[in-house]
Amino acid sequence: MTLWFPKLIKLLGEVPDTETDELLLTVCGDVKGEQKTFERILAIMKDDRTKIRANVNAGLLKNAYILAVNKKFRDEIVSLEKECVKQGDTQVREFCRKYLSHNKGN
CA–CA distance from 38 to each of 28, 35, 71, 105 (Å)? Predict the structure, then answer.
């Protein structure tokens, strides 16, 4: 177990709930390459849109896509398609395009 993880949990108890996910999103940026730690932090997050942003920031576009589709977050998929262009992920971009073409205006 990462030594700082219990300290993070304690700190979260001192932060207002409205700021918890943003704090965790910042921490996610510091644990790139540490998949297990990243997943533990995602599990603590409450807001699904923040989880999607964390996955995008980590370059895990397929994970972000799956979560956005499961939650039917069309706006997030639109943003994700643009991010796929930036990151050069043609596969997930095509997934996004297909989803958007079949779910217009939802």
Answer: 6, 5, 20, 33
Q: Quote the pTM value.
A: 0.85
Q: Which residue has the tokens 């993070």?
A: 8
What confidence score (pLDDT) does residue 66 get?
98
User: Under DSSP, is residue 16 helix (H, G, I), strand (E, B) or coil?
Assistant: coil
The answer on pLDDT for 106 being more than 70 is no
- Please give the full DSSP string across 29-87, using - where no structure is assigned: HHTTT-HHHHHHHHHH---HHHHHHHHHHTT-HHHHHHHHHHTT-HHHHHHHHHHHHHH
List CB contacts of 24: < 8 A, sequence separation 6 or more: 12, 41, 44, 45, 50, 54
pLDDT tens digit sequence for 22-70: 888 888 877 877 888 889 889 989 999 999 999 999 999 999 999 999 9
